[in-house]
Amino acid sequence: MKSLFTFLLILGMANAPQWQLNMEQAKTEAKTNHKFILLNFSGSDWCGPCIKLKKEVFESEAFLSYADKNLVLVRADFPRSKKNQLSPQQTTHNESLAERYNPEGQFPLTVLIDASGKELKHWVGYPATLNVQTLVNEIDAQHAAAH
User: Fold this and answer.
1) Would you tell me how many other CB atoms lie within 10 Å of the CB of residue 52?
2) Are 26 and 74 in contact (CB under 8 A)?
3) For the chain, which domains are there?
4) I need a labelling partner for 96 at 20 to 30 A (CA). Which of 2, 33, 37, 107 fits?
5) Beta-carbon count within 10 A of 112 CB
6) Residue 104 and residue 34: Cα distance in Å, rounded?
7) Please, how many CA atoms are within 13 Å of residue 105, restricted to the half-sphere of its CB?
């Protein structure tokens, strides 16, 4: 029974949207599939609110289900621990994203972007009022305004 549950859990996660690391690929996918891009700036190994936001919102079944249909997910991570360091190419890519979308270096920062790369909305930190439903409602409002 336990192995069946594990198998079903893995199977369910296999269909979950994956966080991408490349903005240009995300733009192409967003244009092709008529989706917005959700870019998350994170300090995965040092930023408490980043870790909490990821666990409580971005890894929730409700968010993943919504994202699968409506979003291309991109993560720009800035880990500090030596064991979690990114490749030099990824670090450079994330820094260029930060120059454009996060010049003040806020963590976490989540940015809603259209397929052309234009910022539509952003959320700074992980405020108590931000949950899956409020995030989805705000993204849907942007989608309705764009169409």
Assistant:
1) 12
2) yes
3) 15-146 (3.40.30.10)
4) 33
5) 20
6) 30
7) 2
